[in-house]
Specification:
alpha/beta; about 325 residues; 12 strands; about 35% helix; Isopropylmalate Dehydrogenase
């Protein structure tokens, strides 16, 4: 049985991660879910605002008992000072190490899941980080632990009653048509169906795919991706017994009545999925990684260097991410 405690990574220490983590603890300390921070205790202590009780612990097992009274920290210190709002490649190895430690705790069952505070990609790339972001790195770290025939990582964004998956993520728009393949979309649909059943408790998930082109291609008059790629993928998923419809014009998929007709929408590119999520609930959207052997969520925003260290950051998305991670972990435990 997995422990009830979550691991929360500090993220980029020059960003708003430390601030939203401490604010999340203040909001959740009495009710939970309990979590332990994997990161630098001193950086948490220097976060703007009233001083908070912090407790250095040696094991994640200690976190739940002290959570109401102090924020538990697995202290993995930085080697150089941090200037709020000024990212540095000097901290890259520590940031990477915090993520690796949290994943190790989740794989061993010492924590029930992980929540990652935002990271900035550029300083990590300067230090040789070879992954587009958190999602792909987590996929590599958990690859040997997964026994599923079809596995992630797949990014899903959740806000209110909307769950949206970008089939292609951090790619230039010009690259998207070549990246969209039948195999890619079928794999995404299979993982989404499995995750909605296992992690969200939806017995019969309803999937829909958006079109890539305006008006879903107008029968091939403004693009053939709907005919050549998306429709065959939808048919293949139906042949596998998955309830999937589409392709549907993206501009009609996100109003309230349309959202009641599906449980998840698979979009063709990054902004097609993220814009409606952020329009629906900018402050409380959550990023969920599907298809991993560990639970992982994160706030649906970035490092916000422009306001770091000023006490202005809102913790809504971090709080929502922690609660959703705990909910998913409980469903997996119960199953």
């Amino acid at each position: 049985m997995r422990a009830p405690t979550l691991a929360v990574t500090l993220g980029d220490p020059a960003g708003i991660g430390p601030e939203i983590i401490t604010k999340a603890w203040s909001a959740l300390r009495q009710t939970g879910p309990a979590f332990v921070v994997v990161g630098d205790l001193q950086q948490l202590a220097s976060t703007s605002g009233p001083p908070l009780p912090l407790q250095r612990i040696g094991s994640a097992d200690e976190a739940a008992a002290i959570f109401a009274d102090a924020l538990p920290v697995l202290d993995l210190p930085l080697t150089s000072p941090v200037v709020a709002g000024q990212p540095s490649g000097v901290h890259a190895q520590a940031i990477i190490g915090w993520i690796e430690t949290a994943v190790g705790l989740a794989l061993s069952g010492e924590v029930s899941g992980i929540v990652t505070a935002p990271i900035a990609k550029a300083p990590l790339y300067e230090a040789g980080f070879a992954f587009p972001g958190h999602t792909e790195f987590l996929g590599m770290l958990t690859a040997k632990a997964s026994h599923d025939a079809v596995r992630g990582p797949i990014m899903m964004l959740a806000a209110g009653d909307l769950r949206a998956i970008p089939a292609t993520v951090h790619h230039a728009i010009a690259e998207v048509p070549d990246l969209l393949t039948i195999e890619c979309l079928v794999r995404t649909g299979v993982i989404a169906d499995q995750a909605l059943r296992k992690d969200f408790g939806i017995a019969s998930p309803r999937l829909v795919m958006s079109g890539l082109n305006p008006h879903a291609g107008e029968g091939g008059k403004v693009g053939r991706e709907e005919i050549d790629v998306i429709s065959p993928a939808v048919r293949a998923l139906r042949d596998l017994g998955i309830d999937c419809n589409g392709p549907a014009p993206a501009d009609t998929l996100f109003h309230p009545e349309a959202r009641r007709a599906y449980d998840v929408v698979i979009c063709m590119y990054h902004d097609q999925a993220l814009i409606p999520v952020k329009m629906l609930d900018f402050w409380s959207g959550v990023n969920v990684t599907l298809g991993l052997p560990v639970v992982r969520t994160s706030p649906d925003h970035g490092v916000a260097f422009d306001i770091a260290g000023r006490g202005l950051a809102r913790a809504d998305s971090m709080i929502a991410a922690i609660r959703l991670a705990a909910d998913i972990a409980e469903r997996r435990r119960a199953a």
